[in-house]
Amino acid sequence: MSFEQSVSWWCYERRGIDENDLLREIKAIGYSAVELVPRHKFSLVRDHGLRIAAHQLHVPLEQGISHTKYWSDIQRQADESLKMAQEWDIPFLICFSGNREGLDDQRGAENAIRHLSQLAKSAESAGITLILELLNSKVNHPDYQCDKTAWGVQVVSAVNSPCARLLYDIYHMQVMEGDIIQTIRDNYQWIDYYHTAGVPGRNEIDDAQELYYPAICRAIAETGFTGYLGQEFVPTGDWRSALREAFKICSV
Asked: In order of start, what are the domains of the chain with their CATH numbers?
């Protein structure tokens, strides 16, 4: 397998699953990391021999780098998050465009480029990569600005830093624009992280949904990608089976 696989913590934390059972199973299946873990759980994850692959640079995602009015708070959070990432060996921090709030896409991109450029300088010094997440504004995140691959590429390519890249969420981009494999082939140089989930519903990535993940993962591998693919689906059935099947499907 050319790339690593991780598991998004939030997909399981409210299901009454014993945390130690979850982490033991994740490790036994072959996943190397967990992501989006609450800070007070970091030690528990590490105790199970797993890495924390990614965390948020700032929250909430609705208030992001497209707006100057949120900039001072984002910068404050970013300083703290970069120190945390260094301390806990977290290679990626997720940042967000935020919602449009009436801001047109070109002005939003200009603001995002300016702000991400400043953040990227700090990230370079810290040895951390910032990943701007692509989310859908059609179903899950109404009004979110970074809802198309082209907009995200416009921003990170203008920043032109090795520490400013995209988090390409396959589920979200299928909802917004489709053409997943060709989009990855055309833009892989700007993508440093992937997320999965089935469409529609954001559930298992099995044959009950419309995306064919074996082909998608082969396409990702063919680009030479060696980073993380994060399983971010919410299982509807047995969570152990779902995690095992997802790992197998994406192991190319």
From this structure: 4-250 (3.20.20.150)
